[in-house]
Amino acid sequence: MNLILPESGLLFWMTLVFAIVFFILAKFGFPVITRSVRKREEFIAESLKKAEEVQESYARMEQERQRMLEETSEQQSRMLEEAREASARIVEQARERATKEAEQMLERANDEIRLQRKEAMQQLHNTVVEMSVAVAEKVLRRQFDNKDAQMTYIEDWVEQQQDGRTDAS
What is residue 125's predicted lDDT score, i.e. its pLDDT? Predict the structure, then answer.
């Protein structure tokens, strides 16, 4: 078997098979392929047409957007001017109210400070008294470890009370 020059029988059968395959493809395959290609062409043409319509629609929408932006800009300018005027009035009113409220708050704060100072002084006084009593109690407990010392202190205190002295030293 020679690969470069095929035999005549092989050549005959290859030609016959090619003709049968070509006939089948021509009868059944090529119409399907050409129909698909035509459908694709129609689809592409339709898509291009729609793209042009969308582009035209976009151009109209862009013009409308520009017009609306201009109107909005004008309205914004008017509204900003009105807002500035209203803001100036509100600021002036708020400033007056704030001044009055600040004066009232300052007065209340001063009253509160005076009251808290008085309470703090009272608490400090009470704390000093409590500490003094606690210190005195500890000192007296150490001094009067025995009964004789306690009795002596009580007798001295009673004598001082009778003499009219309140100083217990």
Answer: 86
